[in-house]
L-lactate dehydrogenase (Cytochrome)
Amino acid sequence: MSKAKIAINNNYPSVTDLRNKAKKKIPKFAFEYLDGGCNEDVNLIKNTSDIRKVELSPSYLSKHTGSDMKTELFGHTYDAPFGIAPVGLQGLMWPNAPEILAKAAFEHKVPFILSTVSTSSIERIAEITEGQAWFQLYHPTENRLRDDMIQRAAQAECPVLVILSDVPTFGFRPRDIRNGLAMPPKMSVKNILQILGKPEWAMKTLIHGQPNFETLKPYMPKNLDLKQLGKFMDQTFTGRLNEEKIKPIRDMWKGKLVLKGVASEMDAEKAIRLGVDGIIVSNHGGRQLDAGESTIRPLTRIAEKYGDQIKVMMDSGLRSGPDIARTMASGAEFTFLGRSFMYGVAALGNTGGNHTISLLKTELQQVMEQVCCENTTDFPNHLIKKIY
Ligand SMILES: Cc1cc2nc3c(=O)[nH]c(=O)nc-3n(C[C@H](O)[C@H](O)[C@H](O)COP(=O)(O)O)c2cc1C
């Protein structure tokens, strides 16, 4: 039984409501970093619209003994088939965001994935989640750094290591370029005016202290602006992951290994050959390749072809319980959401994690009852229309 109670703030009964509120509460540079895709946002928009083309069949007269959202993944039973995707710079959008979300995930018994470039440390998040959080590793250039972070994740009893394949380069994001996005936020006149317009964010950030890359702190110089940060990231992380780089990680990491950022059958096949335990079909929420497919399309193909050989999960574009149901019906065994949870925290602060998880659980339960789906492995039996 999860410790958390389903608690929904009735003023925000959808992720769209949370997004609208978040936009009002946090400075423009922080909201645009969270909300935007890349280039012209084509991939971002397609992710959501394509998921919504998937249709499910209602079933009202069949025998129904109840719907249960509990889902088994890697030997662990989660309370729902969705988790919190890794998001960088979380503390820029709301102070303490990673801690708020990790706590809510732990209490609701759903997975939380900490990003290498989030604003809390592996150790702190492990403490909050009693060692149940997953860790997403950006691939370091130096093996020493790679080994050190993997060792820290193992020491923190992290059950799943997530490696990332879709950042061979950083996404081209015009809003962030225009906003001169920096860690800590750059004090340009434009940014100061934006901060002054959001007093609650400003006050909370002042009290909490400026956000920092806590996991990377031992390895990085202090107070970098965007240009210096870009240089540090370029030097410290080789974005491009390949089979040769995955092999030693597979040998070193004794827990479950997940490859995130798979968007083609070819990469799924390689992951299987390398002994990876699971893949997250993902295009980084439309933040990397604007000319790419929406994720629901490769998901359907990959799940059909390889679903019996590897755990197939998906993120990118999900905004609701019906979206989770559509994705599971299309072949995913588990799903993740990124922006939705951050909208929740930016909108509602400390209660945002609990609210967003409660909302998604409530919506998903309602869909399961409508289609007469008794457990989450049963979703594909209720699918009318697949999207390839
Ligand atoms: C602001 C932001 C920062 C992100 N940072 C990371 C990151 O550090 N590591 C990572 O693996 N994915 C990162 N992602 C991608 C998410 O993990 C996830 O794939 C994506 O948000 C899913 O799409 P959705 O936002 O439509 O749910 C980020 C996404 C956003 C929106």
